[in-house]
Write the structure tokens for this entry.
Amino acid sequence: MKNLKMLFHLTIADIKMTIRDTSFIFWSLFFPFMIIGIFGVMDFANMGNNNVGLVYNKNTEIYAKQLKQVFEEEDDYKFHEGNIDDEITELKNDDRVIVLEFTESEDGQVVVNTYMSEENKQTASIIMLVAEKILADISLQMKHIELPFEVKQNIVNTENLRYIDYMVPGVIALSLMQGGLFSVIGAIVVAREKGILKRLFATPLPKHVYLIANIGTRMLMSLLQIAILIIVSKLVFGIKIVGSIPLVAIMSCLGSLVFLSLGFLFSGFAKTSEAARAMIMPVQMLFMFTGGVYFDRSVLPKWLFDITMYSPLTYLSDALKDIMVKGYDLDNQNIQTAFIALSIWLVALVSLSIKTFRWNGKE
């Protein structure tokens, strides 16, 4: 009972100190709103979206592969092969600018069904015209006088999502990362550097109560921060949220714990707050620009794409986008994978943090 009372009072005091911290207000609220505002006003719709869905069967594979090979020589298009239902779903989610389906008619003629949205019709039409030219060249190479392909155009109704609808989940993930990393510097490293922890633990306060209060405060502030970001983004920019808000909160809490643990790990190595910031900044910048926050990760070089797909910010950002934009729930494999991966990150970081954490500079 005594520990619970100390935990309550310490949590209240920590919340007050956090709110009075101007750097926390900037990085947690002003900076995310600044990013959302910039991209919301400019609205980079479909910027860099040259993702093409490709669907074929055994008999039409040769034509689809030849078309893909010619397109990829330009290095401007990224093809995604799958079944028609999955590719149409990605098109509806604005993850494809066009879907090309190679099928056969009853008389053996190859039919190319093209699916596009009304919003992306201009870009998709250009791709379709290029595809028709390539198919004509393939026909000549096969020594056909007439084009053995029939191209059909289909308009698909999409969610009509904007760039900012994709940006907000990424910015939420980014703000959780920054809050987790930099709040530990203020709460632990600075307090240890100034000798506050040494004097604090001269009192009857147990160390675990101090840690629980700090972590609990950061979790509460994270949830409050997410709520403010979502409410303001919805009121000002009218963002669409398709998925479950409680699931967003659960995934955000898990992500926040991961980055708090990473902050504790860095604080264990750093003797001063300046050293801690110097360690955190390169990691933060790497995660920020490769975690799918500002743009689709498909634009990254393959080697960098493969490496950074395992970063905690990538898992968190992708999961929040899948939930908020695509409406996925815990039954979805992507969400399950992200949940398991973040849990593994959490266990690993907590284990390392316990071994490296220091309460004072002499340990």
Remarks:
- The CA atoms of residues 57 and 310 lie 32 Å apart.
